[in-house]
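Incident log entry.

Two folding requests arrived from the same account within the same minute. Monitoring flagged them as a possible duplicate submission, but the sequences differ. Recording both here for audit purposes.

Request one:
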Amino acid sequence: MQNKGLIRLFAILLALICVYQLTFTFKAKQVEKDALEYANGNPQRETYYLDSVAGQPVFNFLGIRKYTYREVKEYEMNLGLDLKGGMNVTLEISVPDLIRSLANNSKDSTFNAALNLATERQKSSQENFVTLFGQAFEQIDPNGRLAAVFNTVDLRDKVNYNSTNAQVLQVIRKETDGAIDNAFNILRSRIDRFGVAQPNIQQLQTKGRILIELPGVKDADRVRKLLEGTAKLEFWETWENGDVYPYLLKANQRLREMNETGENTVDQIAEKTTETPEVKPEGKKAEAKKDTTGTSLLDELDKAQTKDSLSAGSAADIAKNFPLFSVLPPNTSRDGQLFRGPVVGYAHFKDTARVDQYLKMPQIRSIFPRNMIFRWTSKPMDKKGDYYQLIALKVTNRDGKAPLTGDVITDARQEFGQNRATSEVSMTMNSEGAKTWARLTRENVGKSIAIVLDGLVQSFPTVQGEITGGRSSITGNFTVNEAKDLANMLKSGKMPAPAHIVQEEIVGPTLGKESIRNGMWSFAIAFVLILIYMLFFYSGSAGLVANLALVTNLFYIIGILASLGAVLTLPGIAGIVLTIGMSVDANVLIYERIQEELKAGKGMKLAIQDGYRNAYSAIIDGQVTTLLTGVVLFMFGSGPIKGFATTLIIGILTSMFTAIFITRLVFERWLAKDRKIKFVASGTAEWLRNPTIKFLNKRKVFYGVSGTMIAIALFALIFKGLNYGIDFKGGRTYVVRFEQPVPVQKVMNSLTPEFGSAPEVKTFGGDNQLRITTDYRIDEDGNNVDSDIEDKLYDGIKQYLPANTSEEEFLSNYRMSSQKVGPTISDDIRKDALISILFALVIIFLYILIRFRQWQYSLGAIVALAHDTFIVVGMFALLDGWLSFSLEVDQAFIAAILTVLGYSINDTVVVFDRIREYLHLHPKQDRKDVMNAAINSTLRRTFSTSLSTFVVLLAIFLFGGTSIKGFTFALMMGVVVGTYSSIFIATPIVYDTVSKVKERITRKKK
């Protein structure tokens, strides 16, 4: 083997990268284990511990760099919601509403008719909404002019009465895209408030849709309200810290008096005894120091009265000395400069909520003037990201609202200031806003104006002078990205961008833990079975090398997943296990080839060399076709399906590398040491070694068998139909677990009055667990719709819960999961599913055509794939309701179908490859005999690969948990049907079509 040194170096480097990436996960788990020990069953203490150590180093990489716990969490392997619990939300920004807000006459009949027509067409079109709107407008009124509708104050500089419809549409497209991007930025800043580890937010392929994953969140109603709320951008006048300081001293004195008198109000907010955990680097166990001096805020405020204690050092140093709530006296030196401005204090992020509680207490709130309110900054002040600044805002309006809001901003952009190396933000306001802005800046020269978004201060620039005309620049030590973020935030107030939840999934933490346990059991059992099988079938030496390749492959898969920041889901675990099962195929192909070379009389060294070389073609063709289906899954899937596709793609690539190169390195090492190598076990040496089955002679019989199976499937599809999941029909699904088995019909009857019609209620995984599906109010949007339906669900089934179970307890402990899919997104899912299957068939057809240079091979493969798909789909229709688990057709089912296609074509291509080889070696022999011989020669490989893959899937099916039983059942059926079609359908069709073409050519010659 050439380039052995390079391959060895690559394998070692890849292994080191995997170890490095997985170390972050290991260190994070160490710290979290320490947190559990420290908390001793108290979730609040666990959270406090993790917050306290967020900025402390816990991993020292070779003395080169120290990583804090926060950084380690960012780099650890992400677990999906089905493994960790949490909430998955797909939001849709309403493009029609955005367009309506840009128009100057939203009551125009042509305009509204065009919006309605475009909305209707979008359900069945891949075009973006703005294009559809333009087409609809022109269809309704060919002579209509969009410039007349969109020549508004906000668009005056971009649209005039001479603008063409195409030009106006271009402006609308740019404005709506900008509004969607701004909404994305706002949502990204909002999810930071949840304190969720490893949140995920990304724009989906469909413009205007945003996916948000929040692992571990429990208050779904709070999430919905925060995500669907309209952005609130405000400009506030501020207090100088010197004016606020005396009030803070009085508050300190009052808190001390309350503490001395033992008022319960204080005790409810802060514990009398606080424990400050000390976390040592490298995950050593935590220790706790007890502080019995009383409420720590009192002490820190008291210390802050001494000006000398704050007179030196940076702001970060001050915050370090006063970790709970550092109060800055007026004119305090900070970083060598005299400090003025609206910043009145600092707090560690874990303590901001407690400080807010103190400041809201009636006894404390009464000390401060009515027109003084406090808000935290949105970004931390220190590099570690631990400390936030508290800003004092001045209320100047009688209604308590901000004097200026974001809807007056017409444009904002990042620019480089004149003669400046740093970025600044240029902001433009409309005429009404310009007047108010001029007054605010005139009255606050030398003071700060705070820019507040959703209650958090984004920036508080100092006013240098009165600003007239509505154009102004915000300067500071901004980086380019910081300036862009601020500009986008300012633009977010320009127009309403309502977001509606169109898809939602909630997984309870209990179900997540069960999924991890079930997934790990299925994984371990399947993997052990594969290792045992390889040792049994291919001897202790060759089997051991194959197992070494499998273990290395598994290590590479997990390490690469961690390196890419990919999310590991339950289908992802299934993908890994399935990949391990399928990766056996490459080893089997190589070993069978080597055995053939040995039987031909070649020496061990030459047999290994030729065996690897002759197996390359079949390995590459088989794996590439499966890889193509994985790519299709990744392109069209989302959430868990994309996770499954990711593991499948990575697994195929790593399995090829380990099977071809790692095993070869081991064998050549053994050969160099004259070690004896055996490639077959004595008990399996002659198993299917030289079969002489006449497959093609019986092809019409198998055509009849397949025709019968297809007829049964067609009968089931016509007269029974498929059980579509909410992915394809829309609706809400709840999985509820009870203490005892409950009667399905009674639960359905109890919920019917609540939902207005009978929901679908089925047993799901056990007699005490039900799956409840309803389309009640699925077309309605709003913050309260989902919570109202949860109320009705609770009211309908609370009689089956333990006495005095509250709704909060029900949602936390008995509702295991919930899912919502709106009608619009279900239409798109159906469309994407159909496109993905057709696309997979097309690219497979083209690949085989290119590789085998005859359309008959492509035809045979596609007919076999269509045969497999139709039978699996038909069996789902036939067996639904007869089995103890759900056979719903949903996104996971489509993923299973595509995986079946990949597996089936893998099997088929291996057979085709051997047929091509035999036809080349024996060109003058009868074609039927040659093809029969080729099929017989692959039977040992087909048996080993199919059996190992089926056993793996059976382990997942039995131990992988209820949620993926339907998914794995489809895969098991696909393996059986796919193996059958590769031999009995695909090859006979190639033979028949080639024979008919030859007969036609012969007749023409005569």
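Request two (distinct sequence, not a duplicate):
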Amino acid sequence: MTNPTAIRRALISVSDKTGLIDLAQSLNARGVELLSTGGSAKAIRDAGIEVTDVADVTGFPEMMDGRVKTLHPKVHGGLLALRDNDAHVAAMDEHGIGAIDLLVVNLYPFEAALARGADYDEMIENIDIGGPAMIRAAAKNHSFVTTVVDVEDYDALIAELDANEGGTTYAFRQKFAQIAYARTGAYDAAVSTWMASAIGEETPRRRVFSGTYVQGLRYGENSHQGAAFYSDGSGRPGVAAAEQHQGKELSYNNINDTDAAFELVSEFLPTDGPACAIIKHANPCGVARGSSLEEAYEKAFDCDRTSAFGGIVALNQPLDAATAEKITEIFTEVVIAPGADDAAREIFAKKKNLRLLTTPALANTLDQGLAYRQVSGGMLVQDRDNGFIGMDDLKVVTKVAPTEEQMRDLLFAWKVAKHVKSNAIVYVKDGATVGVGAGQMSRLDSALIAAKKAERMAEAMGLPEPLTKGSAVASDAFFPFADGLLEAAAAGASCVIQPGGSMRDDEVIAAADEAGLAMVMTGMRHFRH
């Protein structure tokens, strides 16, 4: 199998007609006999290229609205026959089956129909049957047959034919057989996942995940780990769908942190005003609203100037020049925003290592979807945390009720706490975080760390007292004891938001009353491990 195998006869059946005519012309010029179906055959014929309809080969017309056209021995025999097996060759001769050396197929646009929200019946009609069957047959017989399933591989096919006098090498056919099986696997995964959702099957017996290669990465979290980036095909706005305008290649950690930053800033609708989130190691070190993006960035930066160095900045509105100038005052790894004006991009162009990513929109944090994580020997799968708490969902449990201004800060702190590694404590004042405690084994420790950070920032900024004085504080889960709550009160917090649900809620509420705190409960927690 070291010698190239000549391509003499090809079957082309594609839904996506991109590049079809150029490919057909190139094959025709090499003397390759072309077989095709339906719309593909018409397009090739209309371009003045000779093509034979598959129906003329099989002796059966396309029927049942095109559901049956290639499911025939004269097609599958031509794909599956072993050319070096005398019995196979004899069967081909006896039944008039011609060998097919090249299969070019792309499947019905099931994923596109899903993306546009097609109804159940339309989704069913977009499930391809003949295409996957032919692909699997051709790929299995890659000793003799070349299989191409992606438009972007047409040029590679032509280059291979040019390099091998109209043939393909075994290594080429092996590589493209693997691509073919990955394509049918991803297609079946999309169908099965959609159907599980459509029929309300929350825990199907088998759950399949697939991804499309985006880029290789120099390494993973650490230099000894290999890594690559894949898209899930959902089109959800974010790092996978973003356009990179400048800067060196994103690393594994950059992508992970940028995703965290963008998902957090997407909690704040642009119509409610500019917002900025600064992320370091997947945790926010500053989040703020402002009258402008520049002010939002400055307020977020002032929460923890030390940690912001080398961080990720996410904005909820298009980047402007004034904000770009501020961001470039310190080293920043990545900035992601739903757009950037020319002046801002010109400013960033002077910082060659700074990556700028733009997205078509913010992510919808209310979207349904699945989140999954690998564990030894398995996978944890859960619904995306799209839980939402509004003003009307809050229950005041203390003698003192929060003011309207405090309520705004409480809800702001709650949104941020959702994106902080648990145990999470977040202090907020005037629409900006002023202390963040993340990822501690004790909620008390998180409260202490957040308060200590605020003290250090007050000293660095020459403030008479930490900004936690008069702040709102959020806890991602209930206070199991009153100690964490009292630590927040000692730091100057005046109001608290927490889920409630502890066996000691009454004790915690009593402590809040004694400290003169206003406290509301959400009935919902936001663990983030």
